[in-house]
Amino acid sequence: MTDTPNLVILGAGMAGLATAYHLAVNHNIPKITIVDERAPLGLTSSRGTMAYRNWFPGPGNSLVRFINRSIELLEQIDDQTAHAIQLSRGGYVYLTATESQIEPWREAARDAQQRGIGEFREHQSIATYIPSPPQGWWNVPDGVDLITNPDVIRQLYPDITPDVKAMLHIRRCGAFDAIALGRWLLQRAADCGAKFLQDRVDRITVRSNRIQSIHLASSAELSTNTLVIAAGPLLPQVAQMLDLDLPVYNELHGKLTLRDSERVFPRYGDLIYWSDPQTLPWNTAERATFAASDDTRWLLDEFPSGVHFLPKGTNDAPEIMALWTYDTHPATYVEPPTFEPHYAEIVLRGLARVVPATRVYFNRAYEARVDGGYYCKTRENRPLIGPLPIQGAYLCGALSGYGVMASQAAGELISAHITGTSLPDYAPTFLLSRYDDPTYQALLANWDARSGQL
């Protein structure tokens, strides 16, 4: 059976659905088919924290402007849907117990102001600080607040470790209901003629360097001259079908969800992040057991900064989502993913450095649910959005751990490439062709692969 859509999108994650929405609704492209072997949002888009932020480092300000645009579109959708996607702006709260962290934060906040993240404000008194509301995002300041008075921090967060020294509050950050957003995008695209086809892509036919057809596991064939690859962690596999060698790889990232039955975690702020390295508080017997085996001795090493959590659930049934990216080795995509068996206990021990009462959950990791997925990323952790060397082929991928928050600007941008409409000035930053630029290659030589990653 052969069908002839005008355009095929491979992948029904958030990037694929946003692309379909912008093409169908905003550019009136008819006969769009979204293909995925899973249900919409069935892979990584539904497994993240559903959080967003505009706190990204340089060089340059392209990524900040790109994410700011995506947040602006999310705000428009939240208003348009009468707050159905539950967008909030409690912010990201970074905490430290190290005095030496304060000046780097101050410098980073000043730099952030220059790159469009918002105004930098420093406080010694709670009188000058504007707390975030428990819900919503309207009339919340953007920018960055630095508090260096521990008494003020403990007033805001009485459950936080008493040796906290400073707090950096990134304001244009928060969370939203990604599932509700994805359903809305798909419905709006469907109302304009797009359709979803649950099937697996087996191969792609290219003739004379042009996309010709997509062959599916069901034996169906989609004849089309325009293909958008929004395949998330399956991008390397799709690239192989096109004989393309893309500069991307996958990392496996886990998260745990825990019912806070003991009510030890604060519920103010959308995300709380511990910025200091630490060794974990194992007891004497645990340390002896781990030290006795090469397979577990690493559990006694110093862990990097970055354990963080988000309040979830409700006040009546509180939960947290918690993450810690302490392993960033490239990973082979396997579905379903499997996680290091100590992961949940490691995260809970790490959280005890931030919220000491977390100790009540030690050796209760079985109460937590661990899941997660893969970040498909470039070595500099910036996306690939634009045309591929094959005519009619486009890529909206390598969105790493910020795909859900970046999806609206990504869908808007790839749609502009496809339709030939005006491109934002940050568009060249995300092209595959950037790797042909000697100046960019020189930047890559000293670029941290964890740049902009939590």
Helix and strand topology:
Layout: E1 2-3, E2 7-10, H1 14-26, E3 32-36, E4 51-52, H2 62-80, E5 92-96, H3 102-114, E6 120-123, E7 144-147, H4 150-156, E8 166-170, E9 174-175, H5 178-191, E10 195-198, E11 201-207, E12 210-216, E13 221-223, E14 227-229, H6 235-241, E15 249-259, E16 271-274, H7 284-291, E17 308-313, E18 318-323, H8 343-354, E19 369-377, E20 384-387, E21 393-397, H9 403-419, H10 438-444
Parallel strand pairs: 1-13, 2-3, 2-14, 3-10, 5-16, 6-7, 14-21
Antiparallel strand pairs: 4-9, 5-8, 7-8, 11-12, 12-13, 15-18, 15-19, 16-17, 17-18, 20-21
Overall description:
43% of the residues are buried. Helix 1 packs parallel to helix 5. The chain is built from ten helices and 21 strands. The protein is α/β, with parallel strands linked by helices and 454 residues long. The longest helix is centred in the first third of the chain and has 19 residues, at 62-80. The chain has two domains: 2-50 and 178-248 and 378-444, FAD/NAD(P)-binding domain (3-Layer(bba) Sandwich), CATH 3.50.50; 92-173 and 250-374, D-Amino Acid Oxidase, subunit A, domain 2 (D-Amino Acid Oxidase, Chain A, domain 2), CATH 3.30.9.10. It has a nine-stranded mixed sheet, with helices on both faces. Strands 10-3-2-14-21-20 form a six-stranded mixed sheet, covered by helices on one side.
